[in-house]
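Subject: Protein record for review, amino acid sequence with backbone structure tokens
How to read it: Take the token row as a discrete description of the fold.
Enclosed: The protein record, placed directly beneath this head.
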Amino acid sequence: MSSLIEGRNAVLEALRGGVPVTAVLLAPGPEGEPIAEIRRLATGRGIGVRTVPRRVLDERSVRGAHQGVMAEMAAFEYAPLAEVLASVGERTSSLIVVLDHITDEGNLGAVARCAEVVGADALVIPKARSAAVGPAAYKTSAGALAHLPVVREPNVVRVLERVKEAGYWVAGATESAGTLAWEAPLEGRIALVMGSEGAGLSRLVEEACDFTVSLPVAGRVGSLNVAQATAVLAYEWARRTSRTR
């Protein structure tokens, strides 16, 4: 099933940002510069541009603000966890980032960006009560989602059990942890679990972690956002590993 991107600016950003757009739908009428630019970008990428009755866009619109233009985005192909683990094989250093019900799609994309840059092998997200890969995630990932396997599983705790069986240590990030990241064993095969924007790690997920870590706070703001915290912890893993790309 494809996703729809609505509105001139949103469609322009999708085309400029490499989102896998499969078709552009335009309502009939005069074409100003934004629509002309959409047509040029789509044609340059070999994407079909179709003119359809405005009522078709009205019927398909979710937000009711399509401005006479929509883009269809191919459904994202998630990777099986078994396939990711098989690709890692017996390698002694590997990072898998696991998100415990992150609901903001922009945060999902930002986490994917830092995970891919640091050399993580996969990003894992839950199927329910969690952001999925869509246009906003593509935008903030800055192209990372084209290269990073994303696994979508129904049960995060079960995922942690499976990665433990594959030789990973599970590290949960939480403000309440007594061990700072610099003192924790963040090397080797690590599954790094990041909690939701508001509630942090859920109880069952935290209990499934082998250990928890926190970041030092010297200022008055209590914590970083999830993407920033992921970047810091992922680079601490990278600092300790000899893996190069």
In short: Residues 226-240 form the longest helix (15 residues). The chain has a mean pLDDT of 89. The first strand starts at residue 3 and ends at 6. The chain has two domains: 3-73, 81-240.
